[in-house]
Model the fold of this input.
Amino acid sequence: MTGMRRILLTLWLVLYCSTSGAADLTARQAWIRLLPGDLPAAGYLELVNSGTNRVQLVGVQSTGFGAVELHESSEQSGVARMRRVDRLQIPAGGTLRLKPRGYHLMLFRPTAKLQPGDRVTVTLEFSDGTRLPVEFLLRDATGQ
Ligand SMILES: [Cu+2]
Done:
């Protein structure tokens, strides 16, 4: 391989790799359900991966909340349960849906008084180290 071809290949790899990851991720329909009292809020959204690599959602943070976790809801014998999960997969060309009675964000200890209609930014962290800030619309307990 000539020196020039090696440089071009290296450049191509750098450019190609820099476009993978969060650059291929689009968030949509992001909203948070506020619950009364000290109950944690629940966050929902769709994450579309238009890239050719599988991506994993591995962390969530927001300055609007003291803590944010990834959760999965399930139902066993008519009893609703949920558990914390470490990471969620978004397949190449696929969509991850966080929705009521499924995967969701659990947001604890709001740092300010929150009202339906407000917006809060939540930053999603992915396995390749990239971060995607997403604006969530706040709704009341009925989802309005
Ligand atoms: Cu939960």
Remarks:
- The radius of gyration is 18 Å.
- Residues 71, 82, 104, 106 surround copper (II) ion (CB under 6 Å).
- The chain is about 10% helix and 50% strand.
- Residues 17-21 have pLDDT under 50 and may be disordered.
